[in-house]
Amino acid sequence: MRRPKPQKERRAFTLRVAVTALDCTVLRSQLAVTLFVVCSTATLGCSSHTSNSTSSQKAEWQRPSQKRSDMPIFALVAPQAAVAITAVPAPPPRPRAEESLSPDQAATPAGGRVVALINKLQEDIVTTRYQGPTVVDRKAGLYAWDCSGMASWILQRAAPRAKRTVGKGRQRAKDFYRAITKAPVGKARRGWQRLEHVSEAKPGDVFAFLRSPLSRSKITGHVGFLVEEPWPVEGMEGAWAARIVDATGLPHEDDTRDYQGEGGFGFGTFLFVTDDSGKAIAYGWFGTRSTGYLPTEIVFGRVTR
């Protein structure tokens, strides 16, 4: 049998090392291992405006509890394109913020209306699913949408001025990102105020980001609402986690949606990674259980009217 070329052997070995280093057991071990990792696959369950189905989404991603060999390949990359994260033992479960969510926790009256509407949705939803076109039948308790469809529907009723700033017609995640990016810090304009740091966010505030340059997905990005104040993750410098509400086909950590279900409206724990200046530069889709972090700028906005 002909011996493989040395170059191929080295490449195969490198991939094995990368996958082994990212085994989910590392996060639960007592050893702190600094990893420079990014995910080369798409972030799914966002505002896509494509015909991708939920089943096709789940073909690319697997639930976090599965073996790393079944997960997408993670690659070691140059430090300037990566996010430095120190793996630590998983923290104990936290109370779900949505179970005690109150409009009084919001920073503005408009944010309070957002929170009140989110609470109302918790009570009213009978059926929800992730899909491109927004279909709402309030009498039947049916709410089917993607992330931008859900955000648009909520803001139209709770903060119409902020909704108009995002744009007319069918908005996408990138439209929310641009509206927040243009908003001033420290004061409101056209229904929006931009927050400088994730730690300033309150329930009812909005987060949005564009598709990562490392993603192969056709989505424009993702948008959702925070339902608690973000908290620093112990042992992970620059990492902040928070309960969020969004519409997705791929649930997050400790999610209220079934991993084998149709997605849609739901709550989960999300992770934001910041640099030394406090700017959010990457995210972990599976919260504190994420084993890869996609780099992209994340913005946080507060609706005022």
Task: Explain what the structure shows.
- Helix content is 24%, strand content 25%.
- With 305 residues, the chain is of the alpha+beta class.
- The chain has one domain (1-305).
- Strand 10 and strand 11 (239-248) form a beta hairpin.
- Helix 4 crosses helix 5.
- The chain starts with 5 loop residues before the first helix and ends with a strand.
- Residues 1-82 have low confidence and may be disordered.
List its salient traits.
305 residues; three-stranded antiparallel β-sheet; 25% strand; disordered N terminus
Oligomer category? single chain
| Percentage of residues in strands | 25-35%
Q: What number is the mean pLDDT?
A: 79
Helical content stands at 10-25%
The SSE string, one letter per element, is: HHEHEEHEEEHHHEEEEEEEEE
Shape, please?
Answer: globular
Distance between the termini: 72 Å
Count of extended strands: 15
Q: How many domains comprise the coordinates? A: 1
Number of helices: 7
Largest sheet: 9 strands, antiparallel
Uncertain runs are 1-82
Rounded to an integer, what's the Rg over CA atoms?
19 Å
Give me the secondary-structure topology.
Layout: H1 6-21, H2 25-28, E1 33-39, H3 54-60, E2 74-76, E3 83-87, H4 109-124, E4 127-130, E5 135-137, E6 142-145, H5 147-158, H6 160-166, H7 173-182, E7 192-195, E8 206-210, E9 221-226, E10 231-232, E11 239-248, E12 264-274, E13 280-284, E14 294-295, E15 298-303
Parallel strand pairs: 4-6
Antiparallel strand pairs: 1-2, 1-3, 5-6, 7-15, 8-9, 8-15, 9-11, 10-11, 11-12, 12-13, 13-14
